[in-house]
Amino acid sequence: MKIAIVCYPTFGGSGVVATELGIALANRGHEIHFVTYRQPVRLELLSSRIHFHEVHVPEYPLFHYQPYELALSSKLVDTIKLYGIELLHVHYAIPHAYAGYMAKKMLEEENIYVPMITTLHGTDITLVGKHPFYKPAVNFSINQSDVVTCVSENLKQRTLEFFDIKKEILVIPNFIDKRKYNLSFTDCQRSIMARDDEKIITHISNFRKVKRIPDVIHIFNEIQKKIPAKLIMVGEGPEKEDAEMLCTTLGLGEKVVFLGNSNQIDRILCFSDLFLLPSESESFGLAALEAMINKVPVISSNAGGIPEVNIDGVTGFLSEVGNVTEMAENALLILKDPKVLEKFKNNAYESAQRFDISKVLPLYEAVYEKAYNSRFKNSFS
Ligand code: GMT
User: Fold this and answer.
1) What is the reported pTM?
2) Looking at residue 174, what is its pLDDT?
């Protein structure tokens, strides 16, 4: 099948999922066309079945805001016609579902019907999408999608709560590819980051408010009072500067390392002992799943869809949002005893297998099949 994928090309979870999905679909023989403003960070164009089409937004001084949706929908129309695209899959509702809908309508004028699948990822619903300034447009474009999927049961409930959705919402969880991890690094080169006696604790995110970065640092602060430990902070975002200042105020010095954005997440997780995710809201928590498949237990909040991924007392522990003391206690419970740590590490790895791509990809393919087969019915309804 020829599929156009629209996503954010950044390090955020929705872009990562869209990119990995496109790569996996190409490996299964589909022809994949990424349409976005930059080459997605995890995309290496090493397959003849993967194409990237850049959306350019020409700057014009009259526009206070440059019209990305317009440029995106025009690029979609051109790409779909030029390559005979059969299906459009947009990740993150804003503004992708809206632009996708416009492209569909323009194409229908030329008797070209391309079904659109919209995948909801989280903040497009829970934070940005439900803002009154966006809500009518988001609501409309979700309802106009031929198929709507979302990444967790919790996000489905939130979507139904916040919006007036007439469409069925299918839950297709995020995924990892376990084969990649079996083959990868045998030597984690742990010594680059820490002394042998130090435990390595990791946090990976886009450093937005919703991630509760100060909680990460306070949890670590409590841990390092009891055992030798290092904190590795991976990512970039608006909260990073304050986070660095907080570390200085707490006198954490060299115990905390800020690495910035990285394409070597698996390398970092490979030598990590524990992953922290105390988020205020999280539709799924792909970063936690990536930790788990790398045998890293997770200390997290119980927000949103996290409990569907991190199993309390098995793969790590869950606490109420903001309960830093309990999170630190639970972290120590895992880290202090090598046998307990080993048990949690193995549990995390085993549990992550539920989300292996071999189980999730067929769900997307079934959705594509259904949407594709219904195209004529929908176009004349
Ligand atoms: O977490 C972020 O801020 C990035 C955001 C995104 O849209 O890229 O992530 C969301 O989608 C991911 C992939 O489906 C989920 O794993 C994250 O939980 C979700 N983030 C939030 O809900 C805050």
Assistant:
1) 0.93
2) 98
> Which residue's CA is minimally distant from atom 2 of ligand 1?
12
User: Which residue out of 162, 239, 284, 289 has the highest number of ligand 1 atoms within 8 Å of its CB and is therefore the one to mutate?
Assistant: 284
Q: In angstroms, what is the span from residue 60 Cα to ligand 1's centroid?
A: 32
C-alpha distance from residue 20 to each of 1, 26, 207 (Å): 17, 10, 22
Convert the pLDDT of each residue in 357-378 to its tens digit: 999 999 999 999 999 988 766 5
All residue ranges of the chain with pLDDT < 70 are 182-187, 376-381
The torsion angles phi and psi of 177, rounded to 5 degrees, stand at -110, 100
How much distance in Å is there from the Cα of 230 to the middle of ligand 1?
Answer: 26
- Tell which residue, 312, 345, 284, 301, has the closest CA to residue 150: 284
Say what the pLDDT of residue 381 is: 41
- Candidates 129, 80, 133, 137; CA nearest to 108 is 80
Question: Cα dihedral sign for 76, 362, 118, 293?
Answer: negative
Domains of the chain: 2-175+357-379 (3.40.50.2000), 178-355 (3.40.50.2000)
